[in-house]
């Protein structure tokens, strides 16, 4: 599990630095990635790139993983503090998407050392 967690830590560092290529390097080509803004999933590197490019043009998200654990089916859940700001760094007001400051669970499924699936769950 340590290798997978190190991969996830690199993904979070790259995401927060807006280094999309750094993130994509750790994702399977056919990755299914949860769309936290609109629901559903986007599929593949170019769809993930388009999703984040759009998201980062509207808001400034920051995600900080606080803990990791493996589930019975082999996925890794990262307990994450999600902070969403406007592009000037101010707290959001009256947003029209589903993202907001809160604790969430990021669920990662791996295949051949790369993330093949990403889902979002509420943290109880």
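^ Assign residues to that structure.
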């Amino acid at each position: 599990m340590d290798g997978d967690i190190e991969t996830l830590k690199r993904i979070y560092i790259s995401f927060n630095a807006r280094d999309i290529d750094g993130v994509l390097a750790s994702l399977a080509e056919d990755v299914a990635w949860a769309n936290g803004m609109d629901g559903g999933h986007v599929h593949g590197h170019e769809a993930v790139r388009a999703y984040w490019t759009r998201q980062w043009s509207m808001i400034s998200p920051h995600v900080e993983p606080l803990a990791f654990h493996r589930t019975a089916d082999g996925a890794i859940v990262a307990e994450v503090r999600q902070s969403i700001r406007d592009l000037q760094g101010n707290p959001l007001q009256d947003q029209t998407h589903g993202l907001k400051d809160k604790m969430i669970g990021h669920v990662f499924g791996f295949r051949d050392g790369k993330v093949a699936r990403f889902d979002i769950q509420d943290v109880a």
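The beta strands are 27-34, 41-43, 60-70, 76-85, 102-111, 114-122.
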